[in-house]
Write a structure and sequence with these properties.
Helix 3 packs across helix 4, helix 3 packs across helix 5 and helix 4 runs antiparallel to helix 5. It contains five helices and five strands, in the order αββαβββααα. The protein is α+β, with helices and mostly antiparallel strands. Strand 4 and strand 5 form a beta hairpin.
Length: 172
Amino acid sequence: MDLKKYSFKEYSETYKTLFKKERIKLKKILPNAIIEHIGSSSVKNLGGKGIIDIIISIPKDKIKLSKERLEKNRYDYIHSGGDKDRIFFQKIIKYNGEERRVHIHLSSKDTYAWKAAIAIRNYLNKHEKARIEYEKVKRNAVRYAKGEGAKYRKYKKYFLDKLEKKALKENL
């Protein structure tokens, strides 16, 4: 699997298994954390890049220590991947001889990043029409971007912004 190229993969039940395995590892590192599966791989029947996205909630006063613990356990901190609400990491794992990418979003559950990620996941799992529409956008984004991450994200942005507003409104 070429981990550098953006390609579309059909949904797989393997994503749940990979999340559960990674969650066990993360709980050993951050025992008091709330750990949730987010992103496309957390939505039944939604294809995507096959990345396992995980958001972790830690009290704000424990963020620095948690960041250090994740780095010590070979999660690569990606400075440019985060924002004011979250710190971003990635890790390459092996599963059945194949490399897979895991993205970790370290945050706190009272942040906008946490609320939006959970709301979008829940909304897409509940609304089939939105899930199907988002999958079309993702497929088109992969074709448009031709492997460029910035183009891929830009292509999806308008749809995701609208989806986020609907999801947050429903999740209140």
